[in-house]
Structure formats: C-alpha cells, structure tokens
Amino acid sequence: SASELLFQDRHVAALRDVRREVAERLLDDINMDNITSFRLQTKRSFERFGDRLQTKMNRQLERAWNLGKEAVDAPLRNAGHDLRVGALPVSSFDTQRLQSYRDEVSDAISNIAADGARRVNNAATFGVVGGREKKKIVADVGRYVTRGAMKKIAAQVEGMTKTETARICNVSMRNRLKQAGKEIEGEIKKYWQHIEDGRARPAHQSV
After folding, report:
1. Is the separation of the CB atoms in 50 and 11 below 8 Å?
2. pLDDT (tens digit per residue) in 1-20
3. For the CA atoms of the chain, what is the radius of gyration?
4. CB within 8 Å of 131: residues ≥ 6 apart
C-alpha cells in the first residue's frame, strides 16, 4: 500500500550512523587545534549519508512510480480489462519526468546533507570555542537524532521522503489514467467521490 511505501524504510535512521561518528570524534580529543579537521570529517560523513540516501530514494521513487500505475491498473482489471503494470507503454516523456523528479530529489538531498554538516559543525565549533565540556557539546549536536542540531536535519529528511514519495506516486497515477483513457477510449470517466466526513464545505460537497 501507499502507506507501507511511505513508512517501510525510515531514512532518518541512517542519520544515527552520522551522529555516532560525530559523537565519537567529539569525545575523542576535540580541541581548538583539531577543530578544522573535525569539521572536514563531519562534512564527509554527511556526504556519505547523502550518497546512501540518494541510492535508497532512487529505488523508492521508482517503486512509488510503479505503485501509482498499479493503482490505476488494479480497478481496471477488476472491471474486466486485463492490464498489468507496464501493459500500457510508458512514453519517453513519462520516463523523462521520472528522471527529472529524481534529479530534483538529488538536489534536495545534497542541500540537506550540506545543511546538516553546517549545523553540526557550528554546534561543535561554538562548544569548543566556548570551552564547554565534551559531553555538553555532544548534547548540543544531539545525543539522539531527535535532539540538538540533528533534530532539524532529521525533520528535513523525513519531510522530504514523505512529500516526494507521495508526489511521484500521484504524478504516476495521473499519467497512467491518461494512458488508460487513450487505450480504452470512451470507457474511462473521471469523477469525484465524497467521503462524507462532515468537514467539507457545501460547495465542495455539491461538486
């Protein structure tokens, strides 16, 4: 299901490796003499995280794309149309659209990784310059991915994952409906079904 696709792989969990690496370096022997080296290592840790996240998101976006097609194909099969995922040819335009979304997500991941390194490095640098205890600097960075500087990064990753997965699924569904409408001419109609939740405005309910 769509919800399983959205939540089955918690990309935020991968940040735990980055947080652990940073914490270990902080507790090792962080001081004014090696803060520059620490900042560089932190940047590399986040770049590796970004590469791993990109690989996972590429797979997830493709699965979401196929899920959107299957959401259209399944009811058509139930109505007697023997369609399968891939039964209707995906045009080069659709393929390019999927790739464009991948490129867009790749840019977003790069920005998140860069922002993450900046936030963590700033928290660590301010701690060292301010003479804070190592354990307190670790707390500033985040004892967990839901604390300190790591909290904002985790929220960005989770928000991007949910938003982009849902968006590519919806785009795929719309494209698939257009393809099915051309393949099954005169038999595909679009309509709205109200869910009767008592919250809709009267104008929307009448539509």
Report:
1. no
2. 444 454 445 677 788 899 99
3. 23
4. none
User: What would the pLDDT profile of 76-96 be if each residue is shown by its tens digit?
Assistant: 888 777 655 454 444 544 677
DSSP annotation string for 62-128: HHHHHHHHHHHHHHHHHTT----TTTSPPPHHHHHHHHHHHHHHHHHHHHHHHHHHHHHHHHHHHHH
Q: Which residues of 4-39 are buried (b: 16+ CB within 10 A; e: fewer)?
A: ebbeebebbebbeebbebbbebbeeebeeeebeebb
HSE-CB of 147 using CA atoms within 13 angstroms: 12
Write down how long the chain is: 207
Spatial neighbors of 87 by CB under 8 A, at least 6 apart, are 73
Q: How many CB atoms lie within 10 A of CB 167?
A: 15
